[in-house]
Specification:
It contains 16 helices and 21 strands. By secondary structure, the chain is α/β, with parallel strands linked by helices. It folds into four domains: 189 residues, 3-Layer(aba) Sandwich (Rossmann fold), CATH 3.40.50.280; 114 residues, 2-Layer Sandwich (Transcription Regulator spoIIAA); 110 residues, Transcription Regulator spoIIAA; 64 residues, Nucleic acid-binding proteins (OB fold (Dihydrolipoamide Acetyltransferase, E2P), Beta Barrel). It has a six-stranded parallel beta sheet with strand order 2-1-3-4-5-8, with helices on both faces. The radius of gyration is 25 Å and the shape is globular.
Length: 506
Amino acid sequence: MEIDSLHLEDDARQVFLAAPAAEPERQYYFMEQLHRMVGARAEAGDTVLTYQVETFGCQMNFRDSEKMAGILLASGFTEENGKHPDLVLINTCTVRENADERVYGHLGYLKKQKERNPEMVVVLCGCMMQEPHVVETLKKSYGFVDLVFGTHNIYKLAELLFLMYSGRKWQLMHPVKKNGKYRVRHEMLIDIAADADLIVEELPDERKYPFKASVDITYGCDNFCTYCIVPYVRGRERSRRPEDILSEIRKLASLGVTEIMLLGQNVNSYGKQFEGVTFYGLLQEIEKIDGIHRIRFMTPHPKDFPDELIDVIAASDKICHHIHLPLQSGSTEIIRRMNRHYTKESYLDLVRRIREKIPDAAITTDIIVGFPGETEEDFLDTLDVVRKAGFNGAYMFEYSKRTGTPAATMPDQVPEAVVKERFARLMETVQEAARKDLGDLTGSVQEVLVEEVDPDRAEGVTGRLTYNTLVHFPAPEGKNPEELIGSYLPVRLVENCGFYYIGVVA
């Protein structure tokens, strides 16, 4: 980004040029500058600036949003859960077409809000912004958006906001009445990085739960599944240094975090950039950290699941016995067309090896219906795997064509009516298998981490088993449900309700 193109006032230009070059010191510098700007506004008698973060997509997006919320708080903003924030930040997803449509639909609503309040700032970031045609659409049809950036420079939020608020083109924006409606005229600030070449550590964050946290261990993906846009918008895979991950988790444990979720697009390929570093080795080091009671990870790839990883999970008292193992298709031919690098037989063999060493493992999966070229025989292979694997649950999707992926131009696209009919059969088969497996725990006493007060049951709370299954149960007599949040309780499971249990404290 050329500073001269931003038309900064002289004092803002000098502040910008004085910023440290190294990260994260540079971003903390801009957080401080923003904090002063927000504070000066309040001292002048204006209201404190408020923000609202809205997130679409996967758990990695939610983790990114936690980081950006932390940056905004450190910059002097206050969270606003109502309808009139001063800054709205939308973290977008582009895995499926309907995710794009939801973002554009929401922008239509924000446009009306902006017409009523021209000073409201609208910020768009995330995966969707890494697609050039999306940025062109925004410039052409959504000119009221103030700031746009992608996945590779989320850490620069404070710097970009400083430039936006300091730029004359933004300061001189004004509403213009046309055809009875006000339209905001100004120039959108756009900063899209083509490549991800930097991992910035030690930035603030704002987590939803004080007792559990997500920790990124890899960014990007090298798999290039033919239906997936992720490698193109999040970049090639990069692993964080083990010492940085362990340092972050130790700090979280000191703050009272007891459950950790390790995140990566292909989490179990972690460490391949470093000599002698493996995912299962990282897990063993995390186990040694005092205060951490549960360790989860998301999302592993079946092709990178060695026996050593299974052995580490089986031997651990901390690693949760929930393994999310995306299948996508049970047909070896469709798996090949998807560029997934396993077969129906090797997948089922992996499930067998997991269940032999971890008999109580809850295995969940992802399945795509209607991938180009999928025949009825291919689909029956998927149903066969569902029955043989005995999944505890599945996230099921109708194939969504994504522009820019090889699958989007493949021949033999499956008719929509056929896809929907197969989806219904798949859902029925998955539910049948899940009910059967969940029923095995009825009557047993299980450890539950209490996560929140149950909004649908008086004096009730909701928590999760090690298997990630939800459990609803009443708080013990005389106990305040709020005070139980974050604690581990022994709960007897008394009723299987399909995808959750009803229980009572044992």
